Every structure is written in structure tokens, then in C-alpha cells.
Amino acid sequence: MKLIDILKHPSLHSIQVAAGANGLSRNVTQVGMIDAPDINDFLFEGQLLVTSGFHFTKNSHLLHDLIIGMHDINASGIAIKLDRYIYELPTDIIILADKLAIPILWTPADDFLSLTVKRLTAVILETQNTELRQIIAINQQLSNLNAQNITYQHLLDQSAKVLKTPLALLDSHFTALYASSEWVAQREFLTHYLRHESDIDYLNLLAPTRIAFNHQIIDILPIFSALNENKAFAAFVVNESEPSDFQMLRQQQVMNTLGLANSRTDLLNETDFRNRSGFFLNVMQGGLSDSAIDNYLHDESIDNKQCFRVAIIDFVQQNTIIESHQFEIRQQLTRWFISEHHLPVLTFSHSQQLVLLINEDIDTRQFLNQLFQFLNTQKKLNYPFTMGFSRISKSVHKLSELYDQANNALKLTSSQHPIMRFRPKNAQELLDLLPKQESDVFVEKTLGSILKNTELLETLKSYVFLHQNVTAVATALFVHRNTINYRLKRISDLLGVDLEMPDVLVDIQLALLLI
User: Fold this and answer.
1) If you count DSSP H runs as helices and E runs as strands, how many of each does the chain have, helices first?
2) 105 to each of 56, 64, 88, 424, how far by Cα in Å?
3) Which of 223, 227, 224, 195 is nearest to 211 (CA)?
């Protein structure tokens, strides 16, 4: 506890400050009584030394050296019995004590040194016992709040009462999500300052930091999280430049409570991510009907007509599966980047791939280049990676097709070309790139009269792809040749075309490929 707080106790009112008053905020961890010329050899950090001063009368330099020694070891101060051997302090000693902020106290002349030590120790123990009881009560109070699963607002209000100072909860983007009541009105102001004016690298901030904000001193402390990219922060208004041990204990209790609440939030977020991954994997595997997909998208506030391009970040190198922790880091960093820039991109994991559904309004290549550069600047990543993305954009219902394009693009990547867009390998893949609305119009115009007649459509398909060989068509369909000729005549009449004309056959072949 601080020396200034100890001296406020009624039993110690007779102890006076002789010099070094600006050092009264020093913490006292123990009280020692020493009367020996080699006092410096028995100094400890936080020690309040009680002495008669006998040896200082014969060797005046010893007091000078003692003050320097106490400063070097961060002791708390010296208490000298007044009028026993020393009646006043030399001017140079007062100047030195003031300069180094080492308090020198006068203890009553009529008190035994042992009694002075006893009184000082009793005050410290009494205070420590009181503080211990308070810490236990605070711990119980905050634990009960967490058990009740209360809101962050209520938790911060109660924490502010414990600490007797306003505080705010920041997410990993330095956004003040919640604040105690006294600070609610400043949340947006605080967020803007932290994100745009503080010059703090909040993604990599792992240690407490202190800043000036709105004429106040603010301490920002990282809150424990299983994943660094999921971390949160607590911002406290500092009322004391050197907080007491008791205040630090109270602060740690609050940090532990906020850490538990933050871990619970992390768990819920990860559960949501895993559930979303499960949904998208079911869509890819054709395990959900269109209505089931639409219902889920509605519940998630996602437009079922919104079109996306798909990109895949592949974390497997040379057929070697990277360690799971590295995959988690990459996944979290990617999601952090998307959230940091407020981008309309959905994510889910598949094996050791991270799949991105990128809103069609985004310049996909520019976005992936920026993401690639960001990930490559993170020193914690130990493996290279590549990205492939689809050429077309479609609704979530066509996720399987988009994923296949992105996955094929991955096969074209290399260390020299780590980001690739899908390239069609055949006519069918090239046709698939046409906008569905346009291809549907072309198919309707070309084959509309027979689209619902499975028999005629199958006959025409065989006729086109078997090079107009009627005998081969009859054999493939297990019917008589004359039947095929009859069907072809009917198809020609319904479509109003001559099936012998090359340009007609080209249009029909394209339409059949587009179905």
C-alpha cells in the first residue's frame, strides 16, 4: 500500500514528513528496523526503514549514500527518530531527498523504535486484511454477475463502481462496443480517436498502453482471448498515476470477469461460424432444397437473389497439411480483415480451405490482392498460401458450381502467380460463363417448342451429337430408323427450321449445351 495512505491512520498522526514529500506515493511492502553502518546491504524494494540515525551523526555521508541506495532499489522511505541523535536534516540531504523523491520521516522522540515499527506494521496488516476481504467480496460479486449472464452494459456499470472510474469495452478493431454509463456518450468519440488518431497497432497490441484522451489519461489493457485476432480490450480512466496494489487487484478482478464474458462471446461467434460453414457445405453437396436455402438466408438477413463470386484461400502446400493452429490464425486474420474494412464478404471453412463469398459489387481481384498483402505482412504466419476465384457470380443456390470454378483456378496458382481467376478449359465451361438470363432467352428462342417434350428433345440431342447419322440415332435410342425420321420431321415443323442447314445446327447445339 502507498506510504501516504499508511500515514493517514490515526495511530500514526505524530509521524511527520521532513523531506521527499513528492515520494509519498511509493508502495510499502515491508517495515524494517536497522541501526548499522552497512544499512545499504540490507535494503529491499518497497522497504520502509526505521532507524535511530545514530550512525549518520558520526558519518554524515552514510545518509547521503542511503538515500541514493533506496532510490536505486526502489525502497519506500526512511523514518528517523527525532531528537535522539539527529535534530535537523542538512540542506543537501533535503535537496537530495526531494530530487529523488525518497521520503524522510520524523518519528516521535518518546516512542521506542520497536513501538513505531509495531504501529506501522499493524496499520499495514489491518489495511491488507480489509482489502483482502474487499477483494473476496468483489470477486464474489463479479462472479455472480457472470453466472447470471447479464448484459455487457450492466457488467461495465458494476465494474465501474468497483474501480471507481469509467471504463469501456473495445473489440479487436478498437471499437468501443460498450461503456459504463458515465462514458456512454463518448463511445463514438473514443472509437474515432483510437482508430484514427492514436497510432496504435491494435491488431498486434499485446501489452498495456497509456494514452491521453479528452483531457484524461486512459489505460488500455488487452483482455484474454484464446485467439489473438479475437481479443478485446478494456479502457480505464486513470485516477492515479501510480495505482495502489489494492487498485491493481481490483482492476485484475474486473479484467478476469471481462475475460470470461469475452470468451463466452468468442465461443458463440465460433459456434455461429461453424453452423454457417455446415450450411454452406450442405448447399455445395446438394443436400438442401431451394426453399430450405431461402429460409436460412432470410433468417441470416442475406438476400437470396444476391450474387457472389467465390474465392478459396488454400492453406495446403505440397500435399502437406499445416498445423491446425496456423489454419486458425489465417482464418481469424482473414475474418478480421473483412470486418475491419466492413466488406460484404461471407466466409466458411472447408477442410483446410477458407471459402469466401464475395459480393458481386466488389472488385474481386483488388480485394484479394489487398487481403494477400495483409496476410503476408503478418509475421506469425509460417506457410505460404494461394487464392483461386470464380469468373462468374451467381446466387448461393449455385455455390457448388462457383466453388468448382474457384477450386480449378487454384490448380493454376504458383508461388509466382498466387492469385488466379478461373479459366474455361472447354466449350461447356465457356458457355457456363454466359449470364443465365441471356442463355435462357437463347434456349427458349431456339428450342422453346420442344423443351417440354422429352422424347423429341432427346432425339434432337442424339441427332446433333451423332453427326446427323439417322441409323446411329435409331440404334442409340432403340427405335426403328423410320421412327427417327418421323420425329425429325416433326421437330423441324415445330421449330420452323431446316435441320439440314449448318447454321441451324450450330444454334441448336449451343442451345442444347446451355440447357
Assistant:
1) 18, 15
2) 15, 15, 11, 87
3) 195
What is the tens place of the pLDDT at every residue in 36-51?
Answer: 777 777 788 989 999 8
Is the model's pLDDT at 433 over the cut of 80? no
**Cell numbers 526512511 label which residue?**
78
Q: Which residue has the higher pLDDT, 430 or 498?
A: 498
* Antiparallel, parallel or unpaired: β 209-213 and 176-179: unpaired
H helical segments located in 205-358: 245-284, 290-299, 324-340
**Alpha-carbon dihedral of residues 455, 456, 462, 468, nearest 10 degrees?**
150
- As given in the structure block, the three cell numbers for residue 499 are 435441320
Closest to 508 (Cα-Cα) out of 456, 443, 428, 454 = 443
Long-range contacts of 112-121 (CB under 8 A, 24+ apart): 113/33, 113/35, 113/50, 113/51, 113/52, 113/81, 114/33, 116/15, 116/50, 116/79, 116/81, 117/31, 117/32, 117/33, 117/50, 119/11, 119/12, 120/6, 120/12, 120/31, 120/48, 120/50, 120/79, 121/31
169 forms beta bridges with 178, 234
pLDDT tens by residue, 391-406: 889 999 999 999 999 9
